[in-house]
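Anyone else keep sequences and structure tokens together like this?

Example one:
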Amino acid sequence: MNRTSTIAELRRSGYEVLTVKNEIRKNLIERLKNNKPLFPGIIGYEKTVVPAVVNSLLARHDILLLGLRGQAKSRLVRMLPSFLDEHIPAIKGSELNENPFQPLTKRSIELVREYGDDVEIEWIHRDQRFSEKLATPDVTIADLIGDIDPIKAATQRLHYAHEGAIHFGIIPRTNRGIFAINELPDLQPRIQVGLFNIMEEKDIQIRGFNIRIPLDLLVVFTANPEDYTNRGNLITPLKDRIDSQIHTHYPRSIDDAIAITTQEAWTEREGQNVIIPHYFREIVEQIAFEARKSEFVDQKSGVSARLSISAMESLVSNAERRSIILQERFVVPRICDLQHILPGMTGKVELVFEGEQEGSMKVSKALIGKAVRFVFQNYFPDPLKRKGRPHGETKQTDDSEYGRIVNWFEAGNKVEIADDIPFEAYQRELERVPGLLETTKKHMKIPADNRHELSSAMEFVLDALHQCSKIAKDEVDRVTSYKDMIGSIFTGNEINTEDEDV
């Protein structure tokens, strides 16, 4: 419709002003009817969180999103304004985005009384109708609701009880829009009390002066369950006034986790041909899955999806650094690059007391090792699965799937790989191991001409055999050595990156 400029023109156009919750409901219904995406980019919530949010919006409820960190709560909240009309009319110059047909403030009421339908209006974009506040202990009632402005009162010669002396806070200024508070329990209880009337009675009281302004808002909160016991509390009367409480969660499948990291991680590097084998994506996500069930990790704090995103970016960056230094055409991660994702992990995993005793680095390395072992078993036979043989028959050599590989190391041979060696040298070193190339090709189904991925997969096999205690592994000065397990035990040189106790 054409943008009208006065209340009179707006009346003649037949425009109907809806409350914000009815407006959201109308646009949501329209999207549902036309089968349009509701929350594009939100992955893994299609059958859990999204239906709950849709039901709450259809019911015109205020919402509390409750979940651990890194569960896309804030992102979900910031997508709610897309359900608002693109533009709505408001009295021009109004601090509270007032409905032209129902002015609220004394200024607007007097303006309409004096000029009638000739009062000018302006059109407000949906982006201007969303306000967000992070709850911190220093947030005050004045920040949220407002306070008396003594300078304003003095310059305009107004009594403090006069509405014109008020400096409105962020909530009234979001009238006819969506207001969100993140980490609600961090808000002091006395400030939470100040939200009672805003949510239900629509009654604002500032400095003892009772001013009734029927605000039109959708209020959305986010909170971490940890906050209820550790950092703060959500007071019961406020919780009672929140219509819907919706629990969020971490990705429940590796495929969803991979899709999230692929969407969010910065892996496309300028002028570089980046190739990330799928099993590397699985390893990175499995690290987070392992952390979320580890007894050494504080599960009340959670393990954010940002861990996987940071880890993937660090992995690609180390491969990119190597490619730049060696002037190679392709950026392809290697298993030895996994040690360089540790800086992206250790700050995102909070440990319990036992984990602190082990040390964040040791716990993180163990999580990587467990992830490698888990993903390896999706592609290869389990090296620890023993084949039955007749009673009394002994076996001098390992004739299993990995027999030739393990026997070669038992003969005193070893492989040394630095994370900055050229690809040709990397490939030659791995091809020295008898049976390694054949075993890798047999199970990974990598085209023979894809040498970079094939070589990385060969190292993947060696590392997995180490995680299964078939061969030993040392990591010294960014050089990884694979060698005989028994010989390492007797010489005392092995540094096992996955301690079974961890």
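And example two:
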Amino acid sequence: MAETDSLGVVFPFSGQRRSTTALGREVLVDALREVDPVGARLAAAETNWRTGYPAHFRRLVVAGLDSGQAARTIATHGLASIGERLSWAALGGVETSLADAIAARPGPAPAAPARQLVTETVRGDGIPEHVVTIPYRGTRLEGGALLRQLEDWTTRGIIEPSCAAAVAEVAAHPEWLDLSDVHLVVLGAGAEMGPLRAALRWGADVYAVDLARPQLWRGLLEDSKRYAGWLHLPARPGSGRLEERAGVDLVTEWPAARQWLDGIDGRLVLGNYVYADGADNVRVAAAVDALTAAVCTQRPDTALAFLATPTDVFAVPRSVVSRSVAAYDGAKLSRALRGPMRAVSGGRLLTRNYLPTADPGINDSVVPQQGPNYLLAKRIQRWRAAVERDRGRTVSFTVAPPTRTRSVVKNRALAAAYAGAHRFGIEVFEPATANTLLAVLLVHDLRTGPRSSGQVWVDEAAHAAHGGLWTTAYEPRSALGLAALLGLAAR
């Protein structure tokens, strides 16, 4: 294990090694225990977590359908388990629970050599955009063209009607794009799905946080100079090149990032767009959640922003189920193949997305190849959104569309499935289209204030831009294998 893997937010020991599997299983058991004790026992008894985990993550959603309180109890216990079971490993070998590190004052012992962070600012040369435009297939949609595209996406079941209505409302109020009354903190500034570039085009103050990677910062700095906003970033003091001094590691230095954020005056919008490969995804998700909890405690007016992955489990309204059932009944191309393929596959191929009478339905778009660590990291964000929304905080939470990001296309199987997904009514977005659409939805949520229906699953489904994974005729896992074959053939 590398030295950096044993510092900062780390997995607990299980026997002689740090175990991601044990942590994931135990967190789900803790989350389910009060609301669904049977589900908790089944998770505890799972002997092959790396292949059996999807059923238990599905149980987290189903168990929370009875009431909003049930779902919030699951979220509260899940977050508490993350804080209690993950460790904070400081220099010198001292370890404490992450929960104790969050509560420490003035801060936990450093997990990496202490670094002073100063704020460096770059102002762009562009003119602020005062109209909603979304890049799409070689053009930029605005005005009537944008409204027609929103209608097309809605008609085809690519986005929810509430998503189209929210984007149209922002387009009708272009003054909402002026974000001078808030400071947008983008955690994971280099993320392809984040709002950083859109916000800079609108002239916003953006506080960018990401790893100390000169190439990443070089690209962000070059882009920021073309836009109209102000890019603020944490950096080591000195006179060297800015891209060489910029960045902070949230896994090992989140207390330093917290102190840096303390120096920002005014209302914060804390946007969580972090991602890492494998087990590091859980570590950085937990680190960001620790930072979020600390900031929210100190600054009650802080707003939060999250993007949910579409390849997860969600409860969906009856209207979505009805669309999927109609698509199943009218699927001319695949109808003749359904019987033989289901027989050959033992019922695993081309199965219905939902029971026709389901209300709500359960959409299970989990891609097993992404692994349990990916889903746990995303669940931490969903839990935090649910808990803070219940406290009356402004929370922007949007299900993002399937998108051809770098992390997706480097997975050959998933890239092939996305290439053939259109055969099943699923639209895969380009990053520029997706991140701009989602940035507009963030503006809508900030301008319309706190929103809570009382039901967690209803709030999670609002404004979803799921790309058709919810409304397609077939359960996504039962069709994406065929989509991959079609995608490979098309290539």
